[in-house]
Each structure stands twice: as C-alpha cells, then as structure tokens.
Amino acid sequence: MNPIASLSPQERKRRDFVLNGSLAKVIWTLTWPLAVYTFFNYLYGFFDMVMVSFIGNNELASVVFIDEIKNAIVAFGGGIAAAGTVLVAREYGAGNIEAARRNAGTSFLLAFLVSSAVVLVILALGKNGLRWLNAPDEVIEAGAGYYYLQMASTALMAVNSVFIGLEKAKGNTRIIFILNIAAMTVKLGLSAWFVYGLGEGTLFVALATLIAQGLLMIAAITVMFRKGNSLRIRLRELRLDWGIVGPILALAAPVFLGKFLFSFGKVIVNGMASVYGPLAIAAFGITMKLDGGAGSLANVFEESETGIIGQNLGAKNLKRAVDTGILSLLFSLVVAVVGTVVVVLTLDWMLPVFVNSEAVVLREMVIDIFRWEKFSIFTSAAIAVITGFFIGFKRTQVAFFLNIIRLFAFRIPAMLLFIRLGADHTAVGYAMFVSNTATMVVSIIIFVVFIHRLKNYGEKDLRYSVSESPSA
C-alpha cells in the first residue's frame, strides 16, 4: 500500500500544496498563523514587562536578566525540536510516513529528557548560578522566585517545541496558531489578575507562565498521541533508538549549542552592563521589547521555511528548496523595513507604557540604546532566515558558526572596547549594532556562496535543474 494513501484527504492536499503549489502562496499560507502566534507571544512578553515595571525597577531588571537565562535553557529543547522538524519533514516529503513517525517519537523523548536534566542542574545551582553570572544583588533578591519557576517552565516548553516542530513539518501551522493563542490568553489573563487584581509580584508572573505552558503541553501531548495523527507517538514504542538519536543529535548539537551560547552571551552582556547599574539592564530590556514585535514578525519566516525546505528536499526538488530560502529572505526583509518604520513612528506612544514621566534617567537610557538597537530588526531578520535555510539543508554547523561569531567575535569584544573607551550606557546599543551588522554581512556572503555551489554542483544526488514530482 502506498504510504501516502494512509494520510487523510486533508493532509494529502496540504502535502501536495507544500510540494507543488505557488511557492509564494505556500510561504505566506504557512507563515501567517505562525506570525499571529509569534506576535501574541511578543505581546504577552510585552505586557509582562509592563506589569513588572508597575511593580518596580529592580523587579524589571531581574526579569530582563533571568529571561535571557531562560532563553539559553530553552535552546536545548528547541535545538532538538528543530533537528526533529528537519528529519521528519524530509521523510514526510519523501512519502516515508513510518520513518517520519519514528523520528517524531524519538525527538519527543529526547527533548524532554535533555531539557529536564538541564533544568534540574540549574535549579540545584539556585541563587549561586545568578551570582556566578554577575547578577546584581538587587536583581537576585527581587527575582529569586521568578527564576525558579521560569527554569521549571522550560522543561514544559521543550515538549511544546517538539509539538510545534512536528506540525510545521507537516505544514499544519493552523493548529499551532489555535492552541498557542489559547495558552497565551490564559497567560495574559492570569498575569493581569495576579499583578493588578491581587497585587502580587514577579513570582506570580512566572506562575502564570508555568500554568499556561502546562495547559499547552497537555493539549500538545493529546494531539501527538491521538490515533488520527499520521505522526502519532505510541507510548509502548517510546525508547531511545540510537539509529535515530544519532542523526538527531548530530543535527541538534550545533543548533542548541549555538543558541545556548548566544542567549548565554546576552546574559554576559547584561552582566557587563551592570557596571552602569540595574537601570541600564532595565533600559536594555525595555529597548528589546520596543522593537521585539516587529523583529519577531520579520524573523517568523525562519519557522515556516525549514519545514518547506525539508519536505521539498525529501521530494527531490532542490530548486524549489533553494527558491524557498530566497523568497523567505526577501519577504522577511520587507517586513523588517516596514516594522522598523512603524516602531520609530510609535516610539513616543510606547515609551510611556514602560517608563513613567518621573523616571527621567531611565527614559533617557532607553532612548540612547534604542537609537542603535532599532537596526537589529533588519539585521536579525536576515540572520534568522539565512540560519533557517541552512538548518533546512541539515547544515546546522553554519547556524552554530553564526551564533558563535555574533557573540564572541563581535558582541563581547565590542562591548569591552566601548566600556574601555569610557562610553556610557549607550555602549550596549553600540555593541548590538556592531555585532548584528557584522554577522549579517558574513551570513549573506555564506548564503550567496552556498546557493552558487548548489546551482553548479547540486546537493548529493540532487541537481538544481531537476524537479521530480512527489509520488501521490
């Protein structure tokens, strides 16, 4: 029996659309639910920041500092989910549904085990971990409870990342949109109730995140284990099959190490910024929230891109996979330019949401850093989409390389240089601008060279000019 025949009519139609439909329409159709989800995700981080700024400046600085640690930990589960997405999409596009299902199950188990182990280590370190990262005492005292709950939530987020990755691999981004919007609504409602209704602090903001991620995990597990799912995970089959674990880890290791080190590097930068005091850390966090909405919308093309590329490479359509990367980059840069203009024009409206009229010093710090940080909307979008392109081609070492040079070759040296030269708090903005711009230039060069090689020499047994239709 043809494995494709086992798919539901709706799923066969969706698979055929990804492989044969108008490519621009495929990219936009798969991206818009992720874009809405990503923007809502930004909004709840935005409102979290607003609510925490209502509590106090030390609490705000602690949330900025600790959230970067959380992002570093999330990279472990996210890296495994990204690798699983690529491998599942390849098999799914090739029509090897059973192989895709086995990869799905192993990705799920591996992400949960690795993330849980990392979280246990972090929790065991406790406040000492924050001290080793040069967190100011005010940050540690104001955010200890927030820290513990946010670390615990990362294990749940690992499971949710795998679920999102598997649905992206099938081109089913609509269910991601629906379930995540529900989870975010719960998160926002609980946070607002805890802070404004009950007068609680950052601990309860983190508790709202934990509850929302827990509910999403329950829904995700229900979908992943249900009978009608073509990539159904069976409990009795859950085991670490090293024939599958090996390829997943080979792909995932550069991704999660690169993302971990990059996010960890932001923690280091926050620690370096502490020479200017907690207000500088808070100002940097506010600045990233001001341009985060536009940045997340521009970056979201990376999320749909990897699944589309994976399916088309599985179906032996190299040209369509390459075109996916080029179109995704162009769409992303257009959104980034529009987003930057919108953020600049609305700055005077958004700034008072975070900074009251009496906090003159904090307001000036935010404006000084934002003057340079706003360019990261464009530069980070280019880096993200190019990184996603290479992940789709299973060249995850490129993603690792870009994250490493962004941090260790450009950002930290730039920050040290500006501090040594006696720059004020604006050094944070300078360092972000230099590192993002330099990394974007390097990534574009690598992108162009790689595409040139694909057009001339192909990819393994695939040739750029050859386009084979997938079996129906």
Key terms for this structure?
single chain; 472 residues; mainly alpha; 16 helices
General description of the model:
The chain is an all-alpha fold and 472 residues long. 83% of the residues lie in helices and 0% in strands. It is built from 16 helices and no strands. It has helices spanning 9-20, 23-55, 57-94, 97-125, 127-132, 137-169, 173-197, 202-225, 242-273, 278-299, 301-314, 318-354, 360-373, 376-392, 396-420, 427-457. The longest helix is centred in the first third of the chain and has 38 residues, at 57-94. The N and C termini lie close together (12 Å). The model is unreliable at 467-472 (pLDDT under 50).
Radius of gyration, CA atoms, in whole angstroms: 22 Å
The average pLDDT is 83
C-alpha geometry: globular
Distance between the termini: 12 Å
What's the short version?
The chain is mostly helical and 472 residues long.
Tell me the layout of helices and strands.
Layout: H1 9-20, H2 23-55, H3 57-94, H4 97-125, H5 127-132, H6 137-169, H7 173-197, H8 202-225, H9 242-273, H10 278-299, H11 301-314, H12 318-354, H13 360-373, H14 376-392, H15 396-420, H16 427-457
